[in-house]
Amino acid sequence: MKITSHMTSAKALGIFTIIAVLGLLSLPRAEAVTQYWDTNNATAGTGTGAQAGTWDAGTASLLWTTVLAGDVATGLWTNGNDASFSAGTNGNGTQSVSFSGAVSANGITIKDGTVTLTAANSSSSLTIGTGGINITSSTTPSTKTSLVATAGANVTLSGSQTWNAGGSSAGFTLNTDITTNATAGNTFTLTITGGGTGTANSKVLSDGGAGGKLAFSYQNSGQLTMAGASNYSGGTTLSGTTVGGTSSAVLIVNSNSVGSSGNITSSVFGVGTITLNGGSVKLRSNTTTAMTLYNNVTLAGDLQFVTAGASDKSLTLAGPVTISGSNRTINTDASGAAATPALGIISGNIGDGGNALGLTKSGNGTLVLTGANTYSGDTRIGNGTMAIGAASGTGTLALQNTTVDLNAADVGSIQFGTSNATTTTSATFGGLKGSRNLALKNAHATPAAVALTVGGNNGNTTYSGNLTDGGSLTKSGSGTLTLSGTNTYTGTTTVSTGTLLINGSTSSSSIVTVASTGTLGGTGTVGGATTISGTHNPGNSPGIQTFSSDLTYSGGSSVVNWELKSSTTTNAANPSAIFDTIVVNGNLDFAGATTLNLSFVPTGSNVLWSDSFWSTSKTGTGGWLLYDLSGANTVSNFTNLSLASSNWPDSGSFAFNTARPGASFTVVQSGNDIYLNYTAVPEPATWVLAFSGLAFVLVARRLRHRC
Questions:
Q1: CB distance 237 to 218 below 8 Å
Q2: What is the predicted pLDDT for the residue at 461?
Q3: What is the pLDDT of residues 190-214, one digit of tens each?
Q4: Contact between residue 606 and residue 564 where contact means Cβ atoms under 8 Å apart
Q5: Beta-sheet strands, E only, within 142-279
Q6: Spatial CA neighbour of 184 closest among 231, 130, 233
Q7: Residues 634-659: what's their mean pLDDT?
Q8: Using an 8 Å Cβ cutoff, are 461 and 481 in contact?
Q9: What confidence category does residue 50 fall into, taking pLDDT thresholds of 50, 70 and 90?
């Protein structure tokens, strides 16, 4: 086994090498006395320059003292104590230590110089207790701190422990197999901390055969290269120290996972869940091969896909990814000045455990999402490119539950398709909001139109940007999508379910279809020919809506909901409209049965049936203009439009039939326009006068008859 601590700074850590033939074992921690390595007996310190000696189990070698100064006679080692290299302060050379027999130490501290530990023979072993390994040396070493094993030997952890590289540029290189003797129900954790650059070369971390688990925790600001086909199952925790900075932990994935998502057999991080815990953790592939991890990943912190050079390859997270705790940022960027932007790929499903958490894409590289992701918080693209695709087929569900926020503060872009050879032609967003433009075309070398479906998360959103190019838009879900921009896309517009409010405009080339379960409304301009089988709510409670082309109600479920908020027949321009008016610059056709519903209680209504306004009739063009047709355009099948009768409440909750008994509303056609008319009933005093006049006439006739 070999564990290396790499030291490059002016004030680096000491060097520690352990060479074992049979194995290195970790003991439970006990009360221990510190003994200092001392090769010059009673002379103060341990001696300068290169020093060598044998560390045995307290049988013969008199190379230890309990006095830090090292100025007393040395004695035997006592198993279970803490070992410190070395006595005094002058041990700055290379301390070559050969351990012999069954040596055990509660913990090991390297405070001076370069220390190399080597097994004397095949029957020798070193057991390290829960005190772990701590490097505090201020010496600038020439090699890394290492643990080295041969002939299949490994390190067995018999308890959780920490290996601390001391906070400078030193680190650990794990060049041997590590296992545990934890029993069923127990997990022993190996924690590496303290900075530095390390490597876990092609060695294996495993649970062991006693039924327990090994867990690995990297709480470091340095770099660690992982390359072994490990199968430990206790999980991996990777903790960054800063967000986006150069001192964040960097994990280089130097070997592919084996197996598949949900059936992983080995990877550089074992087979358990990888948890990114705090700060920002950087992941890199190597320079020759694109790498894939099948582990489950929990984003309890932010993630960065980084490169260190132009030859770095992509890294794919192919297992499920869970956003945890709060919204997270995924960065694709270069970690060095000469590096090219990173390419990070997440093909596993990104979820949020039902907690409505979101993602922000940052960095100038590309993040590729190809899973059927289920997270439902917002998605923002701060920088770079978010490319969305699918594992197979031409439709992408990568953003199917999330609301895509094309925020004005961001500069990143969405790319439909993962490369210029992709054939992505449809995409689904949970919702859409923001103000930046979105091109409905894919990334193919010869771009094709993209059919975009929006609304599956049932939210209410407003999008003020411009949907462009040849794609189409379908509104789904029970919520409301408001388009307030000048949209120029030329594909169809379909309201399948929920409500689409067009407060801006759509292209004259975009034919609009409203299904029986859909609703169309707004105060803007609908450019293309429109067919409504569902509900039409013109205006914004209320308002004036314009159709630049033909408007057809196909019947079946066709409903028009009309609103009045003040007792007047004189309308005002948007946004101060008093009642709904539908301007049609094409032909109007009630091709099927269409029901007109009236409402007098929209938001801000002051309609009261007791108002004297309702004492007089409003007939012909003196009524409310419902449909305003221009030029020679025609109305067809007017008789298919019927008014639904109701005991309408006013703004004071007084019922129409009670307040105005006998009064009524009707719909009439006048030329090419359609009006709502009102017939009033005389006031009670008027009825008294009428009845008095009738009585006078009857009496006069009777008197004449008698004469």
A1: yes
A2: 98
A3: 888 876 666 565 568 899 889 999 9
A4: no
A5: 146-149, 154-157, 161-164, 177-180, 187-193, 197-200, 213-219, 223-226, 236-239, 250-253, 258-260, 263-266, 274-276
A6: 233
A7: 96
A8: yes
A9: confident
Strands 624-629 and 673-679: antiparallel
How many whole angstroms separate alpha carbon 232 and alpha carbon 214? 6
All structural domains of the chain with their residue ranges: 1-183, 492-677
Question: How far is C-alpha 566 from the geometric centre of its chain's CA atoms?
Answer: 46
Tokens matching residue 422: 């992709």
Q: Tell the residue number behind the tokens 């308890």, with chain if given.
A: 159
Strands 664-670 and 673-679, sheet pairing: antiparallel
Query: Do 455 and 481 touch, CB atoms closer than 8 A?
Result: yes
Q: Rounded to whole angstroms, how far apart are CA atoms 305 and 362?
A: 10
φ, ψ at 230 (rounded to 5°): -80, 155
Question: 45: alpha, beta or left, given left = phi > 0 and alpha = psi -120 to 50?
Answer: left
pLDDT at 196: 61
User: Would you state the pLDDT for residue 32?
Assistant: 83
Cβ-proximal residues to 172 (8 Å cutoff; 6+ apart), any chain? 3, 4, 5, 133, 145, 147, 163, 165, 192, 196, 198
Confidence of residue 475 (pLDDT cuts 50, 70, 90): very high
pLDDT for residue 221: 63
> Token pair for residue 519?
């609703």
Average pLDDT over residues 2-28: 38
Amino acid at 285: S
